[in-house]
Design goal:
The protein is α+β, with helices and mostly antiparallel strands. Helices cover 22% and strands 28% of the residues. The longest helix is centred in the last third of the chain and has 19 residues. It starts with 22 loop residues before the first strand and ends in a 13-residue tail after the last strand. Bound molecules: uridine-diphosphate-2(N-acetylglucosaminyl) butyric acid. The site of uridine-diphosphate-2(N-acetylglucosaminyl) butyric acid has 18 residues, from β17 and α5. Uridine-diphosphate-2(N-acetylglucosaminyl) butyric acid binds next to β17 and α5.
């Protein structure tokens, strides 16, 4: 994909020529579902494992931080201009293959949930239907242990192939070596390339019924808006969305950043919100929930662009 409103002319002072596909000063709104008005120092779509490793190596040689994005559905860029190489995983890293004998689906990190669920269903397998309404990629979902309807993706992992960000060598990680909990996973420390997820033999009518339930659940959430899903983690034993709703904060806005009127945990960009507006809205919601209920809400979305180097920045929720 050609990056939007970007230049392919590198800055004159780069220590090394960029790998293929790097663009500079790239608008990021179309690469994350919150669609904030912000830009990246550089952007590239990785077409293969080797290309991905080259991009990271090159960013390091330039002394720049880098971030891998999946679907950009759980990301909040924190500055108008983030001083990063943002790397998106291209379609070539999203192959889906159901292995009938082993009862697993092998999927590239850039794979999306729905085609994966459909491919399994066509071969008589289910078990992953909870992911039907999870936006973003499988790689991103694994990094944040995304879930819905009481199940989360790390519970279904058989093994993962990843790049070790320190060495850029490939590693295979069995499920037993992955530690995870509510919306967190040790897979955030690597660059996931591919995962095998376990499946269960399931009749199609049961799968279809579960998908109907997932669609019904989605009706309680805003769709077709610019958001990153739930912004806050649920505090122990309660829904952050319900808390925000009960405190009358739906509709609270800072500039173009607004608390959804449909679900209180969805903060929506209703136009051209900038990172600072969304961050200020988050602070205000946290402040009011702390004042009203004595609860410190924890942010669930990944804050990206503060300058740190880390392998992965996205998940899905
Ligand atoms: N509720 C309200 N007002 C609201 C929002 C919710 O009263 O504005 C009530 C609902 O009516 C329901 C209860 O709160 O009785 C729980 O709401 P919901 O079923 O929407 O669940 P949630 O705890 O708010 C979690 C996940 C969602 C996931 C849903 C359904 C988190 C932070 N959120 O939301 O995940 O889709 O369950 O499984 O864990 C996400 O992670 O981005 C996300 C959207």
């Amino acid at each position: 994909m050609t990056p939007f409103a970007a230049t392919i002319t590198p800055p004159v002072d780069l220590p090394a020529a960029p790998p293929a596909g790097v663009a500079f000063d790239v608008a990021l709104d179309r690469y994350h579902t919150m669609g904030l008005a912000c830009r990246a120092w550089a952007f590239a779509e990785a077409t293969s494992r080797e290309h991905l490793a080259d991009l990271v190596r090159w960013a390091r040689s330039c002394g720049k931080a880098w971030r891998v994005l999946g679907g950009g559905s759980n990301v909040l860029f924190v500055r108008d201009v983030v001083d990063l190489l943002v790397i998106r995983l291209g379609r070539g890293l999203g192959a889906i293959d159901v292995e009938v004998e082993r009862g697993v689906v092998r999927c590239g990190a850039a794979a999306l949930w729905r085609p994966l669920i459909k491919a399994a269903r066509d071969l008589g397998f289910g078990g992953l239907e909870y992911g039907w309404c999870i936006p973003g990629t499988i790689g991103g979902a694994l990094a944040g242990n995304a879930g819905a309807a009481g199940r989360a993706v790390c519970e279904d992992v058989v093994r993962v192939r990843a790049l070790d960000p320190a060495t850029l060598e490939e590693v295979v990680i069995p499920s037993t070596a992955i530690s995870y909990g509510y919306r967190r996973s040790s897979l955030r420390d690597v660059i996931v390339l591919e995962a095998e997820l376990g499946l269960e033999v399931t009749p199609p009518d049961i799968i279809d019924r579960r998908l109907e339930e997932m669609r019904a659940m989605r009706k309680a959430q805003p769709v077709g808006v610019k958001s990153s899903g739930c912004v806050f983690k649920n505090p122990d034993g309660c829904s952050a969305g319900r808390l925000i709703d009960e405190l009358g904060l739906k509709g609270l806005a800072v500039g173009d950043a607004v608390v959804s009127g449909v679900h209180g945990n969805f903060l929506v960009n209703r136009g051209h919100a900038r990172p600072g507006e969304m961050l200020a809205l988050i602070d205000e919601v946290r402040r009011r929930v702390a004042a009203g209920r004595g609860i410190e809400l924890e942010v669930e979305v990944r804050l990206v662009g503060a300058g740190e180097e880390a392998p992965s920045a996205t998940a899905s929720t």
